[in-house]
């Protein structure tokens, strides 16, 4: 018996081609068997719908900091499905930096949760780490920070692990918040939002809440479990796209390099 569904939503990009093809094939098969519409969704737009999972009456426009394992972007959202990418990482994403630093330090995967936990026990001032991209543009970069952690720990092998990760996390958050602040100084918005897996980081959440208070705007933080619930966010974005644009064709192909800026 087919479940009571309005449609089947699936990520069609960006991402690893193999994973995208498996998801698309499964979604198409289910849509055919259950005789329901099928819609392909941009994974990054799915992240932007995470705040809507718990607050459907958001006031627009929003400034959103989207930070995940593969992407880091500052996005101006004028409404659902109406977004402008103001800045993005030119190399490693924030989540990727968490994972690579965690791997170097012998921590588990994914690195974000363990670094978040350990950082609470350490000093964020223990290591002097660089904060790059200090210019006026809104792009981000984290590969240099990752390298700086490696070099610093080689020089200070006696330093407690908690101090190392606290210093790394503080430097990463400082760059994100500096660029996010610059965006808020240039655009008038009703609220700010966090999205992506790194949005579960407690230090970053606290920083964004403080920034929202400073600018006098509403802060939308998805529950931590929703930050990484890809099924829920893709379903939310899929429902929006299905109702606004209609179903995708069944010959829709995977788009591993599909940029958020190309979604309209």
Question: Can you describe what's shown?
Answer:
It is a single chain. Helix content is 44%, strand content 15%. The chain has 264 residues and is α/β, with parallel strands linked by helices. The strands form two sheets. The protein has a five-stranded mixed β-sheet with strand order 5-4-3-6-7. Strands 1-2 form a two-stranded parallel ribbon. β1, α1 and β2 form a beta-alpha-beta unit. α3 runs parallel beside α5, α5 runs antiparallel to α6 and α6 runs parallel beside α7. The protein is globular and about 60 Å long. The two termini are 35 Å apart. 44% of the residues are buried. The mean pLDDT is 94.
Poorly predicted segments: none
Sheet/helix structural class: alpha/beta
Mean of the pLDDT scores? 94
Major sheet attributes: 5 strands, mixed
Q: Nearest-angstrom radius of gyration?
A: 19 Å
Instruction: Characterize the overall form.
Output: globular
- Total of helices: 9
Order of helices and strands: EHEHEEEHHHHEHEHH
Helix content: 40-55%
Major sheet strand order: 5-4-3-6-7
Number of strands: 7
How far apart are the first and last residues' alpha carbons, in Å?
35 Å
Which range does the strand content fall in? Answer: 15-25%
Give the structure's gist in a few sentences.
This protein has 264 residues and is of the alpha/beta class.
């Amino acid at each position: 018996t087919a479940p009571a569904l309005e449609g089947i939503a699936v990520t069609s990009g960006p991402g690893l081609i193999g994973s995208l093809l498996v998801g698309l094939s499964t979604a198409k098969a289910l849509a055919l068997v259950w005789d329901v519409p099928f819609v392909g969704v941009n994974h990054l737009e799915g992240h932007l719908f995470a705040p809507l999972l718990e607050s459907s009456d958001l006031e627009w426009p929003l400034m959103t900091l989207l930070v995940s394992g593969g992407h880091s972007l500052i996005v101006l959202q004028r409404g659902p499905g109406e977004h402008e990418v103001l800045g993005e990482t030119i190399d490693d994403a924030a989540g990727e930096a968490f994972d690579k630093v965690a791997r170097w330090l012998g921590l588990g995967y994914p690195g974000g949760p363990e670094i978040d936990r350990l950082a609470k026990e350490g000093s964020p001032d223990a290591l002097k780490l660089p904060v790059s991209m200090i210019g006026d543009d809104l792009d981000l970069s984290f590969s240099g920070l990752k390298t700086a952690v490696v070099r610093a720990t080689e020089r200070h092998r006696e330093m407690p692990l908690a101090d190392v990760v606290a210093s790394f996390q503080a430097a990463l958050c400082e760059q994100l918040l500096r660029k996010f602040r610059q965006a808020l100084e240039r655009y008038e918005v009703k609220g700010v939002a966090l999205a992506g897996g790194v949005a579960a980081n407690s230090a970053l959440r606290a920083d964004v809440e403080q920034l929202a208070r400073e600018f006098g705007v509403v802060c939308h933080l998805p529950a931590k479990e929703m930050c990484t619930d890809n099924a829920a966010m893709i379903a939310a974005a899929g429902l929006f796209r299905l109702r606004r644009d209609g179903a995708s064709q069944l010959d829709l192909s995977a788009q591993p390099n599909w940029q958020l800026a190309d979604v309209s």
